[in-house]
Write a structure and sequence with these properties.
Layout: H1 8-29, E1 36-46, E2 52-60, E3 66-70, E4 73-80, E5 83-90, E6 93-105, E7 108-113, E8 118-124
Antiparallel strand pairs: 1-2, 1-8, 2-3, 3-4, 4-5, 5-6, 6-7, 7-8
């Protein structure tokens, strides 16, 4: 099968290159979502219990930080070389701050607080 305008060998090589690049292009498409506001779902898992999930608003910043808002609670994530500082606010009152591991896995932000045996999964919906 030749690609129109190219010889049979060149066309096959070109088609093979496109197929080989497919997984790379797919991987690029599922990187961390673009900065801005996104509808999301936050799931919190404590220990071995089933996750508790609900709607959230995710605000991604160009500097790599993120804010996850659920009603009047806001989690602010400030990354620092594979680790992050999380500040939990209720309105204008700081409730807690703690250090965590985090990872972007496509459109899923995974935050792990090993000390408290808690995991936060933020799935970007749009």
């Amino acid at each position: 099968m030749a690609v129109r305008g190219l010889g049979r060998r060149t066309g096959l090589a070109f088609a093979g290159l496109i197929l080989a690049a497919g997984p790379v292009l797919a991987a690029e498409r599922v990187q961390r979502p673009a900065p801005g506001r996104h509808d999301a779902e936050l799931c919190v898992t404590v220990g071995a219990a089933a996750p508790n999930c609900g709607p959230a608003q995710l605000d991604l910043r160009r500097d790599g930080s993120a804010r996850v808002r659920v009603d009047d609670l806001t989690y602010t994530l400030k990354p620092h070389a594979g680790q992050a500082e999380v500040v939990l606010m209720h309105g204008s009152v700081e409730i807690d701050d703690f250090g965590v591991r985090y990872l972007w896995n496509g459109r899923l932000l995974q935050i792990t607080d090993e000390e408290r045996q808690m995991r936060y999964d933020v799935r970007v919906l749009n």
